[in-house]
What we know:
four-stranded antiparallel β-sheet, single chain, 2 domains, alpha+beta, Rieske Iron-sulfur Protein
Amino acid sequence: MKSPQQHPEPPTPVITRRDFFGLAWKGLGILAAVEVLGMIISFIFSGKNKNSAPPKQLLEAGPVDSFAKNSVCAFMGGRFYLARQQDGGFIALSLRCTHLGCSINWEENKKRFICPCHSSAFDISGEVLNPPASRALDYYPVLIEKGVVKVDIGTLKERKTTGKDQFTYA
């Protein structure tokens, strides 16, 4: 009688050190690719809704009559100077110099803003009088409602020069 034929057991696969590290590097590469792809997708779809305007953050400055013509009033909490022009127009100028962002000061006797860092100077409307600042001071929109001056401190606007459309009249 023949004895039942014994089948040899298949050899167990042996993973060499080289194979192990090769698989580990491939796995890490796939993981990195997934992360980069996720970042790209989140960047593409993370934009704000272009149709929604930022909410207004109105700061009440005071009655129109409380500001003399050709005068400047500092609102440090709102980060602006409210300047009333000779013709009665209002503009809210940023406290930051357009050169390097230092806080500017109003010199009443010379009727100008001066930057203590590099001596840039600006007139009462924010226009550059003395470089190194190369553009006019940034400004906040001004609204006048029922005889009260209000400044939208949530919207800082950049400008190259001063224009009539930047002033608000009572």
